[in-house]
Amino acid sequence: MPETPGPAEPSLEEQIAAYQREFQDLDPQVEQVVSALSRLNRRMNVAYSRHTATLGISNAEWEVLKALVVSGAPYRLGPGDLAKRLGLTPAAMTHRIDRMANDGLVTRERDEANRVRVIVELTVEGREKWLEAMRMASVFEEDLLQDLSSEERAAFGEMLMRVLRRVEETQPDAGGRLSDLD
Amino acid sequence: MPETPGPAEPSLEEQIAAYQREFQDLDPQVEQVVSALSRLNRRMNVAYSRHTATLGISNAEWEVLKALVVSGAPYRLGPGDLAKRLGLTPAAMTHRIDRMANDGLVTRERDEANRVRVIVELTVEGREKWLEAMRMASVFEEDLLQDLSSEERAAFGEMLMRVLRRVEETQPDAGGRLSDLD
DNA sequence: GCTTCGAACTTTACTATTGAAGTCTTCAGA
DNA sequence: TCTGAAGACTTCAATAGTAAAGTTCGAAGC
C-alpha cells in the first residue's frame, strides 16, 4: 500500500497551521474564515462544471445564460453590458458570443435603432439549457446546506451579506475583472 | 445627469428576485447564501489582484508562492505536486514555473536522487514577496470581517467548515481543475 | 452640412491554460 | 543485462483571455 500517494492538497487545518508558523501576527480565526470561503468556492465551481459539462456547455457559457435570464424578458443585452456583468473585457465577450451564437444559445444582431449597438438575445434553446443547469444547481445547493438548520441558514446568509456589504463599501472596485459569476 | 449609467451588475436582491421569477421551485434562502458566497469570493479575488499587482506579481504566481510556503521549510515541491495543489494541469505548471524561475521567485533543478523528478524551491526573494503579499492580505481580511463580533466570526467559520465538509464528502472531486487557491 | 469627438464593438498580437503526444528515467521481470 | 511498462515532466497544437489599436456610427459644434 502506498504510504502517501503523494503530497495532495493539505487540509485546511494544516494550511492554517503552516501560515501561522510562517507569519506570526496572523489571526487564525480570520484566516480560517477566509480560507474556508475560498476553498468552498473552489469546490462549488468544480461541481458546477460537472453539471454544465453534462449539458454540453461550459461554465463560461452558463454565466452568459444566467446574465441574460436575470436581465428578464425579452432576455436581451448588449455585449458591453454583458462584459460588465461578467467582469470580462469587451474583447473576450465578443469571442464568447461568437461561440455561443454558433452553438445556437444566443442570437447576435445589430440594433437598427442605433447601429453602433449590438443586441445579444437568448434563444429558446439557450433558455432551456439555463433551466436544466438551474435544476441541477438547485439540487446541489440544497444538498450543500443540508447540515444547516433553517435558523442557521438565515444567520449564515445574513453574515455573508454583511461581509459582502463591507467589501463593496471599502473596495471601490472600478469594474473588477477576474473570477466567476454568482 | 445620466438616468442609468448603463445596466451595471444587478444587486444580489434583484438577481435573486429574477431567478425566482424565472424558476419557481427555488429556495430563496439557499440561493441567497450561494449567490452571496460566490459574489463575495469574486470581490475578494479582485482585491487580492490589486495587492499582488502592486508587488509586481500575478495572483497565479502568488498561489505558487503560497503552496510552497505552506509545504514548510525547505520550501520545495515538485511540479506535479504543485499542479495537484493548485488544481492545474502539469503542462500549465511547467510554464508557470518557467516564468517564475525567470523572475527569480523560485529555482528549478533536477532531483539528483531520482533524475525523473524536478525540485522547485522558493528563493529568498520569493519568500519575501509572499510575506509582503501576506501582510497586505491580512490587513484586508481583518477589515473584511470588521462588522462581525468575535462570537459571530466563530459561528461563521464553524458553519463554513460544516458546509465545506459536506461538499467534500458528497463530491468525490477526482482532482478538480478550475479556480483559485485559498 | 462638415468635422470632430466619443461610444460600442471588433480585430490584432500576445499570454496562459488545456489535452494529447513525446522524452527521459527508473524499476521489475525474463 | 536487456526489455517493457510506468511515472514525471515537457512539448505541441488548439482554445480563451487581456490590452491596445482599429472601425463604424451617432451627436454636438461651428
From TrEMBL, chains A, B:
<dbReference type="GO" id="GO:0006950">
    <property type="term" value="P:response to stress"/>
</dbReference>
<dbReference type="Pfam" id="PF01047">
    <property type="entry name" value="MarR"/>
</dbReference>
<dbReference type="InterPro" id="IPR000835">
    <property type="entry name" value="HTH_MarR-typ"/>
</dbReference>
<dbReference type="InterPro" id="IPR036388">
    <property type="entry name" value="WH-like_DNA-bd_sf"/>
</dbReference>
<dbReference type="InterPro" id="IPR019885">
    <property type="entry name" value="Tscrpt_reg_HTH_AsnC-type_CS"/>
</dbReference>
<dbReference type="GO" id="GO:0003700">
    <property type="term" value="F:DNA-binding transcription factor activity"/>
</dbReference>
<dbReference type="InterPro" id="IPR036390">
    <property type="entry name" value="WH_DNA-bd_sf"/>
</dbReference>
<feature type="domain" description="HTH marR-type">
    <location>
        <begin position="30"/>
        <end position="165"/>
    </location>
</feature>
<dbReference type="InterPro" id="IPR011991">
    <property type="entry name" value="ArsR-like_HTH"/>
</dbReference>
<dbReference type="InterPro" id="IPR039422">
    <property type="entry name" value="MarR/SlyA-like"/>
</dbReference>
<protein>
    <submittedName>
        <fullName>MarR family transcriptional regulator</fullName>
    </submittedName>
</protein>
